[in-house]
Amino acid sequence: MRNAVPDLANELAGRALAGRRASYADEVRRLLEAGFAVMGRSENLDPRVSDIVRSSGLSNQAFYRHFRGKDEFFLALLDDGRRRLGETIDRRMSRAEDDAGRLRAWIEAVFAQAQDPDAAAATRPFALNGERLAARFPDAAKRSQSRLIAPLLPIVGAEDAQAIYHLVMGSMHEALVTATMPSRAKVAHIANFALKGVGRGA
Hints:
Layout: H1 4-42, H2 49-56, H3 60-66, H4 70-94, H5 99-115, H6 117-128, H7 130-136, H8 138-149, H9 158-177, H10 184-197
């Protein structure tokens, strides 16, 4: 019986901490969603904290409980966007039957950001400020690039993966900057071009 009280206390403390973690995770998600929404409306890479907080329905205290400033918030926003894109890429590639199909699926998943109006609105600020972003957060930019290139590496070599990444991302960003929705024919043309370049096209 001597351990009954400490064990119960630990259990209760753990339950309280788990509840707090869930609450804080919800706050972070609401702030990130608000960040995407504010940036999508304004196409501004540096939204005001007050606008983000107002859109999230939370407080300044909640914002600074999780982020030390806008830079840290922006890094979390970038990471979340890349994670979402990575999940979309993984889902599409998993449905393909061969390497050529997986490569095509990767390309189509990236272009989908410019074809879906909501995704385009959330992604356009990053495309408009891509060079400044890379200069301001070089380590984060490299990590994001590596994360998206990784699914290509089992299919093609590292140099080909880099080339495909820059071809597709460059074309997709151009579409975002000019607010032009890439046609299916254009996406198919670029996919065919990439497949031929790595020796997998007809």
